Amino acid sequence: MAYALPNLPYDYTALEPCISKSTLEFHHDKHHAAYVSKFNEAVAGTDLDNKSIEDVIKAIAGDASKAGLFNNAAQAWNHSFYWNCMKPGGGGQPTGALADKINADFGSFDAFVEAFKQAGATQFGSGWAWLVLDNGTLKVTKTGNAENPMTAGQTPLLTMDVWEHAYYLDYQNRRPDYIADFLGKLVNWDFVAANLAAA
After folding, report:
1. What pLDDT score was predicted for residue 1?
2. Domain named Manganese/iron superoxide dismutase C-terminal: which ranges (predicted)?
3. Percent of the residues in the chain that have a pLDDT greater than 90, as a whole number
4. Which of 167, 163, 119, 128 lies closest to 148, judged by CA?
5. Which residues, other chains included, contact 76 with Cβ-Cβ below 8 Å and sequence gap of 6+?
6. Does 70 lie in the same domain as 48?
7. Mean pLDDT computed over every residue of the chain
8. pLDDT higher than threshold 80 for residue 106
9. Residue 104: exposed, middle, or buried by beta-carbon count in 10 A (0-12, 13-18, 19+)?
10. CA separation for the pair 58, 152 (Å, rounded)
11. Across-strand partners of 140?
């Protein structure tokens, strides 16, 4: 059951000036496409071929003999999720049940923002910052390389890619500026709220 590379949910120029057309073309059309292609090649004809990509990720997490398959599966999924975590004119603050839950579990929206910025800025090397639901409680976490919180029983609600290819063309070494723009101008809180409602 081949996993298809999803189209971006917006135009290549839609996130400018925060994320440029060049970054999205390289990131989606080259990096993400390669993960999808390598995953499909690796899983074809195996006993995992009829499973969803989420089930493959959970089934092989921690199995060193399947590290290559895991990395491509998780990176294919992580990127598909990441694109939906952003939208043109995004950012600001969430409303409704999501806002109430953030205030309840973090104390305030500002406290969440600080935790999320810290996770993104302190992820050494490549990886991801996440807002997850863990046993009914919202938490901020970070993962290295291709790792995904679902392998720890957590439900991803929001992610930010902090691999250099996500921001280097636009921000060079200024990862904190990319993080600030992601939270302030890009986050698709409607998508995050829908993930929470479905969890």
Report:
1. 64
2. 94-194
3. 98
4. 128
5. 3, 5, 32, 35, 36, 39, 53
6. yes
7. 96
8. yes
9. exposed
10. 9
11. 131
Beta pairing partners, 137: 134
| 153 and 101 fall within a common domain | yes
| 59-68 residue pLDDT tens | 999 999 999 9
Residues 192 and 109 in one domain: yes
Among 190, 185, 189, 184, smallest CA distance to 89 is for 185
* Dihedral in degrees, nearest 10, Cα atoms 86, 87, 91, 97: -80
Q: DSSP E strands: which ranges in 105-186?
A: 127-134, 137-144, 155-161
Q: Is 117 a member of any domain?
A: yes
Q: Walk across the sheet containing 127-134 and list its strands.
A: 137-144, 127-134, 155-161
Are 103 and 176 found together in one domain?
Answer: yes
Residue range of the domain that includes 35 = 21-84
Domains: count for the chain: 2
- For residue 90, is it within any domain? no
| 188 touches 86 (CB < 8 A) | yes
- Given a contact cutoff of 8 angstroms between Cβ atoms, the answer to whether 85 and 159 are in contact is yes
Q: Are residues 106 and 75 in the same domain?
A: no
Q: Give residue-wise pLDDT tens across range 10-58.
A: 999 999 999 999 999 999 999 999 999 999 999 999 999 999 999 999 9
pLDDT at position 80: 98
pTM beyond 0.85: yes
Q: How far apart are CA 163 and CA 168, in angstroms?
A: 9
